[in-house]
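REQUEST FORM: STRUCTURE PREDICTION
Request ID: SP-0412
Submitted by: Lab K.M.
Chain count: 1
Length (residues): 143
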Amino acid sequence: MKHQETIDYHLKITWQNIANRYNQLASEFGITQSIGYLLMNIDEENGTTVSEMAALLGLKSTSLSRMLNNLEVIGLIYREGHLTDKRSVKLYLTDLGKEKRHLARVVVKKFNDYLDLNLSDDDRMQLVKSLKLINELTTNYKP
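STATUS: Completed
RESULT:
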């Protein structure tokens, strides 16, 4: 089997194209696709722990630190430590972070509206069903 015939090849190039498009659009607002995704996943009311964010992004907490430091420096987020558990740190959005999150959500919504216009309901439902199955199979895969 040629690598272009594998499922993972098509998943990777499709996601890479989506991420590249998001990065092009996000750069107009001074952020990246990764930053937009992070901002969209911070709970506005209760904050989000660094460990929860690391899991959402598929990163180790230590790998996330540099990104969070940069986001703090540019004023998109701030961190607060837990009152009793000093190991637990929550992320919160600043006003600028909320503004950038709103812009990221608009970009994602418009892109998904575009996909919805160009995919039938059946195609969309089948795609989501297939992707969920692939994700489950991947999680359960033990060579």
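NOTES: The helical segments are 7-27, 33-40, 50-57, 61-73, 95-118, 121-140.
Reviewed by: T.R.
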